[in-house]
Structure formats: C-alpha cells, structure tokens
C-alpha cells in the first residue's frame, strides 16, 4: 500500500467515526498519538495541540481540547443538519486556521482572521483525500463563517452577512456555531442557544 493510499484509509476511518460515534473525540485522541498523525495533512490537526487559547474564553485549554469538545457536541446534534458529514468535518476543521494566526502579546492570546484563513486550509486538507469539490467547498464555507454569530449579534465589522447568505446556509452556520459556543469549558448552553436564535432571526428577516 502506498503512502497516499494509507493516508486515504486513515481519512476514511476518521470519517466513519465522525459519522457514527457518539463521542468521536475518543478515537481522535487515540490516533493523535500515532506516528502517521504527524505527517501532512494530519499534521495540520496535530498543531492544534500546541496552540494555546485565551483562558477567559477557553478555560478548557488548547485548540485541540476545544475542538474535541466541539466534535462531541456536533455528534449529539448532527441529525439536525442537512448534511451530517459536512457538519462533522466542519466541526473538526473549524479552528484549523488558529495555529497560523495565534499571537501572544503581553499575555493576551488572539487568533484574528482564523476563520477566513481556515477556509483555504480546510480545502487544502480535504483535497488530499477527495475530488468532491462541491462537498469540500460546503465544509470550507462553514469554517469560513463559523464566527459570524458573534460578528452579527455584536454588530462587529469583521464579517460579511450578505456574502455568507450567498455562499452557505444560515441554519447550518447557526448549528456549527452553537456546537462551537457550547464546546467550551465555561459555556452556558441555554445562553448560547438564545444567542444563536437571535442570530437566526437577524439573518432570516
């Protein structure tokens, strides 16, 4: 078996666990210790382990720790999605842009623009395993717009709600965003659900 075939096999195993496990993080934690996980493109995920986050917003720790929580949350809610596979891969890859954008200045940790950077990285990652361009784009667009719940509800200038509605589905963004917001160490699920409902109302007017 060639290296490319072996990596494709590992991708398909991840795909299967994302779609069928109630707690996909258990398998992901296991394979993250395998030698092949340090090879490209899986190394893009491994970098999440060494990427810190603001303790104020993410007391759970690294981007990897957060991502595992988000993936598990998405597994609980995947049947609410139009495409379970798209949601689950977007959950796994939603913060793939953080390793390259995270900066620490005077003990303040930021990762500005990680959502937009993540769009291209998501395409790069998935393109290693499939030629389904339409599906790759659908995952990448969710990654690109997963922060728009914050941008829209707080009226921040970083987003583009009009373009978001043209490029993806508002309710899918809302679902991924809910998983992202609940998948943190200090989250209040009821509060986060209310924020997401507010976002949907603002977008569907």
Automatic annotation (TrEMBL):
Protein name: Putative nucleotidyltransferase with HDIG domain
Gene Ontology MF annotations: nucleotide binding; transferase activity
Tagged with keyword Nucleotide-binding: yes
Residue ranges of domain HD/PDEase in the record: 59-194
Recorded superkingdom: Bacteria
PANTHER family (alphabetical): CC-ADDING TRNA NUCLEOTIDYLTRANSFERASE, MULTIFUNCTIONAL CCA PROTEIN
Organism this protein belongs to: Lacrimispora xylanisolvens
Keywords: Nucleotide-binding, Transferase
Gene3D superfamilies named in the record: cca-adding enzyme, domain 2
């Amino acid at each position: 078996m060639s290296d490319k075939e072996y990596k494709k096999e590992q991708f398909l195993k991840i795909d299967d666990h994302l779609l069928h496990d109630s707690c996909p993080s258990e398998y992901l934690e296991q394979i993250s210790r395998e030698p092949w996980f340090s090879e490209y493109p899986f190394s893009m995920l491994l970098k999440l382990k060494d990427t810190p986050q603001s303790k104020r917003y993410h007391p759970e720790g690294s981007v990897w720790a957060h991502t595992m929580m988000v993936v598990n949350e998405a597994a609980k809610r995947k049947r609410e999605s139009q495409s379970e596979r798209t949601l689950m891969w977007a959950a796994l890859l939603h913060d793939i842009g953080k390793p390259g954008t995270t900066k620490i200045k005077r003990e303040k940790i930021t990762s500005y623009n990680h959502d937009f950077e993540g769009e291209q990285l998501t395409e790069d990652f998935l393109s290693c395993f499939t030629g389904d361009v339409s599906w790759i784009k659908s995952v990448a667009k969710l990654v690109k717009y997963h922060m728009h719940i914050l941008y829209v509800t707080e009226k921040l200038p970083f987003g583009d709600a009009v373009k978001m509605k043209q490029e993806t589905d508002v309710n899918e963004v809302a679902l991924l965003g809910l998983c992202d917001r609940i998948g943190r160490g200090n989250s209040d699920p009821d509060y986060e659900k209310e924020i997401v409902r507010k976002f949907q109302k603002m977008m569907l007017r």
